[in-house]
Structures are given as structure tokens and as C-alpha cells.
Amino acid sequence: MPDRVRIMCTYTEGNGDMTTDQRPEIKSTNGELKHARIPRPEESPGDGAAVSAQTNTILTLETAVEMFFGDLRLAPRSRKTDRQGISKFLKHLEAHEGIDPKLAPVEALLTEHVTSFAAILVPADIRSPEEVSQMRTAQNNLAAVRKLCSYLSAYDLHPTLATERLRVRIAAMMPRFTPPPPDVKLPDLERIVAHVSSVPMQEKPHLELRRRKVKAMVLFMFRTGVRVSELCALRRRDVDLDAGTAGIYRAKGGKSRTVHFDVETAKATVTYWNARGDQIRGSGANPAYSGRDKVGEPGRGISPRTVEHIVAELCMELGIESEVTPHSFRHGLATELVRRRVRESTVQTILGHASPQTTRIYVHQSGMDVAEEYQDAFGTYTKPAASHD
């Protein structure tokens, strides 16, 4: 197990006061030295933090959370999501349970605190889009808190925390919920692909380089179904032009997989790299898609925010009203594969899902197919003429 970041609060005899220089130094995850907050004996929360006549050291709940994030190797996106959920839980403890995470010992955390947090998060009913969004947020937040509780129990930081009981109680509180299939509008995605493929050449080198980058990037997302974080992490050496594949390393959940792309995507990618001025040898470490558009200077990889901004700009140029994001291309690939009768297990492998249940959420019978079968039964639908009544 990696070295932990331990921040201990120490009580001493007397009035408990210490100068900053006397407080124990602790090293944070970024290597900076800081001083621990030393609570006085009379500030100790609950009987679990009993103070001996000499010296007593406790592990605070806030410190345990930092140890959790320091010990576990989480992907950046997972770390951000878990941090948000656990921060919300700590605020709940302080506001509703009277527990200050900065002072309370980790043993102060009870199963009932998590279930009361769940009762606030989980909507009473799930009918509207807003309630669906609320339910998804609740699932993410509770998954993060359960992960924290499992960590505390597994590493004997809070061995009496009943994690199995917690799992059963939360499962009993959760309503039956299957996320609705993503609203994929393939025609909108195809319009974007057609547009980036038809933009004329630009006179200025940096604008022409950007044109080729946007085309290569959009085609790559549409044909591989990669997540935006995976796209931004790609290096040239990860892309195998001979086989038409790309290696995705340490993606969501720490898993790696291989994705495939077509000839058109390969040509657009090579054209972009050539325009960028990549050398034949020694360019493997270059980002597949650069953040800057400067010939001869690949620089750093493009950021997820920049990719999102590019897709939003394309939608504005084309007058697309539906909410298209980089992730929409992932949904679009799944839908297209299903329409072409690709096996579900193959789609699961391409998308990198650990569970086939997750794939079934993405890989649904498209609305277009449902409409076609419905209209075969009841006749073709035509929009009624405008009425002036």
C-alpha cells in the first residue's frame, strides 16, 4: 500500500494550547508542510475521543478522507466525482448531525449518518427529467460515500463500521430505477461529421492546422466512441495506423482496451499530423491532438474543456438545437453499431463497459427503429397542416 498522508491531532496536559511551531508537522499530498489543528480536550466530540491524563492521538474524519484520496489510485474524473460526493456528505454531517469533520474522530461516523444522507438525496419519485438527473446524482454521491466507508473498514481505520449492513440499507432505500436511454440524434452527429469534412482549406497556416485537427478529432470520436478524457490522453504511439486501432490505457475504472477506426479517420489523422510538422521518427510521445495550433510545435494535448468548446461551436455554426457534447459521439457509435446488428458483447468491448447492464443503457433500440415499426403498423406519420382555429 502506498505511503499514507496521516494528519494527527495531539492533546496534551494543561490548557491544550500550542504555538504553531510546536504543532506536529504533516506533509500533504503535494509535498507541502502544514501544521495540524490541535483541538483542546474540552472540544473533543463524544466519548469516543476520550483524553488520557498524558497524551492521546486521534484520527479525525477529515484526515481520514484525505488518506482515502491519497491511498487510492483514481482516474482524474473519478477522483473529482468522488470528491464532490464526499464533500457534500461532510457538509451534511456538520449541518444535520452536529459532527465537525475537522474535529470529530473517524469512529464518530455511523451507518445511520449515511442512510440519513441517502434519505435527503434520493427523490421520492422519478418521473420528470429533473428527477432522473437528481437520481443519477444521488447514485454517484452514495457510491463515493460507500467507497469511503469500505476503505475505512478495510484498513482498520474504523473497523466497527458495518459496511455490509450499510449496503443492504441503502439498496432498500433506492427505488427501482433504470436510466432512460440517451437521446441520440444521429442526423445531428452526421451533419457535424459532414460539415468538418467539407470545410474549405484556410490560407493561414494555424487556421488550416486547426481545420485538419477538428476534422480528425470529430471523425475519431464518431468512429471509436472514446470518452473525451481518453481522447485528450492519446499519444501518437497509441495509434496503430497499420491495424486501424488505438490503445486506450488506464481509462475509466483503471481499465485498458483497444478501439478501432476506419480508413477515412486514419487519413484525416495522418493529414493532421503531417500539417503539424511531426517528424517520421521521435514523434511517438507527441499528443495525438494538440491544444495549440502551431506548426512544428505539438505542445501539450488538447483539454476536455477545449474539445467541448469546439463541439459547441460546430453546433452553433450548423444551428443544431439538440444538446450535442463530445460524449454524444460515443452514444452515436453505440446506436449505429446496434442498428447494424453488431453483437451486444462486441459493443460492450468497444465501449469498454465492465458490465453488460451498462451497455444495455447505451445500446438501446433507437427511436428511429421504433418509429419505423410503429408506422409500419399504423401508417406513415405526416405533420398536420397549420390550423387557424
What would you note in describing this structure?
The chain is mainly α and 389 residues long. It has two domains: 132 residues, no CATH class; 188 residues, Orthogonal Bundle (hpI Integrase, Chain A), CATH 1.10.443.10. The strands form three sheets. A three-stranded antiparallel β-sheet has the order 5-6-7. Strand 2 and strand 3 form a beta hairpin. Helix 6 packs antiparallel against helix 7 and helix 7 runs antiparallel to helix 9. The radius of gyration is 27 Å and the shape is globular. It starts with 7 loop residues before the first strand and ends in an 11-residue tail after the last helix.
> Rg, please?
27 Å
Helix content: 40-55%
Main sheet characteristics: 3 strands, antiparallel
Q: Tell me the number of structural domains.
A: 2
**What fraction of residues sit in β-strands?**
5-15%
The dominant shape is globular
Distance between the termini: 74 Å
* Low-confidence residue ranges: 1-55
Structural class: mainly alpha
CATH class of the largest domain: Mainly Alpha
Secondary structure topology:
Blueprint: E1 8-11, E2 25-27, E3 33-35, E4 56-59, H1 61-71, H2 76-96, H3 111-121, H4 129-154, H5 163-173, H6 186-198, H7 205-224, H8 228-233, E5 239-240, E6 245-248, E7 257-260, H9 263-276, H10 304-318, H11 326-339, H12 344-351, H13 356-362, H14 367-378
Antiparallel strand pairs: 1-4, 2-3, 5-6, 6-7
Helix pairs in contact: 2-4, 3-4, 3-5, 6-7, 7-9, 7-11, 12-13
Entry summary:
By secondary structure, the protein is mainly alpha-helical. It contains 14 helices and seven strands. The protein folds into two domains: 42-173, no CATH class; 186-373, Intergrase catalytic core (hpI Integrase, Chain A, Orthogonal Bundle).
